[in-house]
Structures are given as structure tokens and as C-alpha cells.
Amino acid sequence: MIAAIAIACGSTGSAPCSPIQFAEGVDAQWARAASAVDFEPTRPCARDGHLRVTAAFVDTAPAEGGGFTARISQTVARDGEQVFVFSQTRAPVSFRAIPDGTRSLVVALAGAAEPARGFVGTSSSGSAIAYLRWRGDNVTRELAATLRPAFTEADLVALVRDTVAAR
After folding, report:
1. Would you tell me how many other CB atoms lie within 10 Å of the CB of residue 89?
2. Is 7 strand, coil or helix?
3. Considering the entire predicted model, what is its pTM?
4. DSSP string covering 9-37, please?
5. 142 forms bridges with which residues in the sheet?
6. Cα(46)–Cα(58) distance, rounded to whole angstroms?
7. CB 52 within 8 A of CB 77
8. Which run of H or of E encompasses 155?
């Protein structure tokens, strides 16, 4: 019953979402990472107070026309267990393939010209996984998650919609 209430709150918009809080020491990682990209990165927004950003870092993503561009990522955990990685880059990232054992996932986003696109299902390793990619403000955002009872497909969809709405 508690899970049903959490999902309902995440999908009704009745409770406000807020940026996921940083674990101890991550605020300094975030400041360094954010200064390495040429856009204002988004922090994921959620209604689940148990989620924490446990790491923030910059790496590179392939850029259109060759070369690489900076990508900022946040690792998010719930009760010490990694739940998802949220990444952002200036580079357009096309949605290419749906892995075997998964199905297409398309999520309409309020105020967005295009929906978030990705997949959800069981990977070849047996883990329940989900991936969504969307673009807005000339930034590509990607969320790759491991689904579990405490973070379901419905939670993922609500988090992406809340994050877009909070921008």
C-alpha cells in the first residue's frame, strides 16, 4: 500500500518536487563539474526524500561532426543503492536502438517539442533497466536507471516529467 501511495504522489503532481539533495561532499564535486560545461546543468527533481546525489562528475560525449564535448553526470542512490545516472551534454544524442528484452518507452513532456524516448525492460543480465533521452534548451539529457520495487517505471516517468517541469 505504501508503494501505491508513493506512485500516486509521484504522478498526480499534488506534492511539490524539489532538487535531489547532495550526499556529504558532493556539493563541491557539483560546483567543479558545473563549471566545466558551457550551460547551466539541471539537477533532477523528485518527490522521494530518500534519493541522494552521491557523485557529480564530467566526462566526454561524442560531438556532431567529430570530436568530443563535455558531459556532466550525477549518480543518484536511494538508501545507499545506486538507482540512476542523470547526464547532460550540449551534443545532440540520437536514440539508436532498443536492446533485446526491452520495449520502447515514449514519455510526453509538458512544453517540450519532442517527447523523451528510450526503453524499459529486462537486460541480458536479468536486471530491470530503463533509459530515457530528451532534448531542450540545446541540451541533451539522459537518465539510465536500474528499476526495483523502490524505483519503478512509474517513478522514472514522474521524475523525468517533474525535472522538465521544474526547469
Report:
1. 25
2. helix
3. 0.87
4. HHHH--SPPEEPEEPTTHHHHHHHHHTTS
5. 87, 133
6. 22
7. yes
8. helix 153-166
| Phi-psi category of residue 113: left, alpha or beta, with phi > 0 → left and psi -120 to 50 → alpha | alpha
**Could you say which residues of the chain have pLDDT below 70?**
1-15
**pLDDT for res 124:** 79
Angle, helix 2-12 to helix 153-166, in steps of 10 degrees? 30
pLDDT tens digits, residue range 88-102? 999 988 777 888 889
CB 137 within 8 A of CB 117: no
What Å distances lie between residue 53 and 13, 41, 90, 93, CA to CA? Answer: 22, 14, 21, 23
Using DSSP, state whether 154 is helix, strand or coil.
Answer: helix
Enumerate the domain spans of the chain: 2-166
pLDDT for residue 8: 32
